[in-house]
Known about the structure:
The protein is an alpha/beta fold. The protein has helices at about 5-20, 30-40, 50-55, 60-70, 85-100, 120-130, 150-155, 170-175, 185-190, 225-240, 305-310, 310-320, 340-350, 350-360, 370-385, 385-400, 405-415, 420-435, 440-450, 455-470, 475-480, 485-500; strands at about 105-110, 140-145, 160, 175-180, 180-185, 195, 210-215, 240-245, 260-265, 270-275. Strands 6-2-1-7-8-10-9 form a seven-stranded mixed β-sheet, sandwiched between helices. Strand 7, helix 10 and strand 8 (about 240-245) form a beta-alpha-beta unit. The longest helix has 18 residues, at about 85-100. It is globular and about 70 Å long. The model is unreliable at about 280-335 (pLDDT under 50).
Amino acid sequence: MGSLEPADLERFRSIVAGRLGLQFDDGKVELLGDILRQRLQVHGRENADAYLASLSSEINGREELRELAKCLTVTETYFFRGADQFRALAEAALAERIRGHAADRRLRLLSAGCASGEEAYSLAILLRERFPELASWQIEILGLDLNPAMIAKAGKARYTKWSLRETPDALRDKYFRIDGADFVLPADIRSIVCFEEKNLAGSAWASLNPFDIILCRNVIMYLVPDAALSVIQRLTQALGPDGFLFLGYAETLRGLSFDFNLRHTHDAFYYQKRGAVEPQPASLPVAQGLNAPAPLVDLPDLAWVDAVQRAAERIRSLSRDCTSPIEPLPKAAGRPPVDLGFVFELLHQERFRQALGVLEDLPPETGLDPDIQILRAGLLTHCGDLEAAEAACRQILSANDLHAGAHYLTALCREHAGDAGAAMEHDRAAIYLDGTFAMPHLHLGRMAKRSAELGTARRELEHAGLLLSREDPSRILLFGGGFSREALLAFSRAELRACGGSS
Length: 503
């Protein structure tokens, strides 16, 4: 057939995003075009109009969407993928949930976005291998995926050697039988796992009983933001009290949910649902902030001053001319309008105590605003009042454990208190939550150098140098310790050379 019109491709991409929740950036438009051409050829159509109209239909497009799911979803997976997370599962999350269910002796696990089933079956093998005392328990493991071909494959429980590439030989020999070129799981493992074809980002799905642990790894990174938010909300509803959620290594809940506390054990980050009595923010902030969400795209944060000033030129004006007026912070849900321009003028002039005094004079209802809280914590750090700064960070993290800036400032406070281990943990949390944030990389590099962990030091200092060149001016102003971008870059290069790296 002839070439497609750009409008056809854009319409196709919009339908895929709206109906399946899948995100395809401009670099993948060519792939979408190839798939659209294939589907038009299958249906014997010369142009895309009628096909796209049918695909948009809630009823008529349903079966075609199932076919598209086979073409558009990423199906790469294998048994025991992510060894660190499986250790955290076994020794922390599962162990805790098993203790919590000692009375009712039941356990429910969900593999959301299960592909061909390796993850769900890995959970079954893990339970059988590490917790033989659960043999008499009621165990349910559910796998969900929108790709019908993968669900069909999962139900057969037949796998090639490639799917077992990270499976220890002892487990492979114990839990699989060889049938020709395939490795087949026995009936007793298959009996506790079931699979259903579900679009996590589509129509509402629900479970009568809550899950204790949910794995949704390498799913939200492929979704458009609205679909990612919807999926996380549904997973949160499906997870029981104190339940655990595991995401992929490149995914975070930052900007998507305030319903979880961050956990870090066994070199793995994961989440535990907040208890009913824990404080939670009423809603996600509307305005972009110093801890603004960036879980889906590899772009620098829009910093808090960007939301205030709405233009990069105004930020540059802040750096070179601190007498310029700054527009008030736009009113967001539950947030009174506040003009903090004068506070930033004072911060730039290093008049930290005076800036704190301005914050103290703000209306009481602004006290729980996360942007004002982190600004206050940063000013306290600049003043050297680190106990008060750490207390302010604790208040932020008690409401939102996913605040990268608060973790970083806590790392500085912990270093000053002589607690190097906790300082490095908070740096790692800040980096995990916001990979574009330069300062925790720089601080962790310095801490690692001091501990003679030179490999870690070189890696973090290299990251810091790359990120500092494009770090937002307002974050350097608040978190940079009074140093300019150029001074921080020079410092990171000097530290890197001292660790044997090349700058």
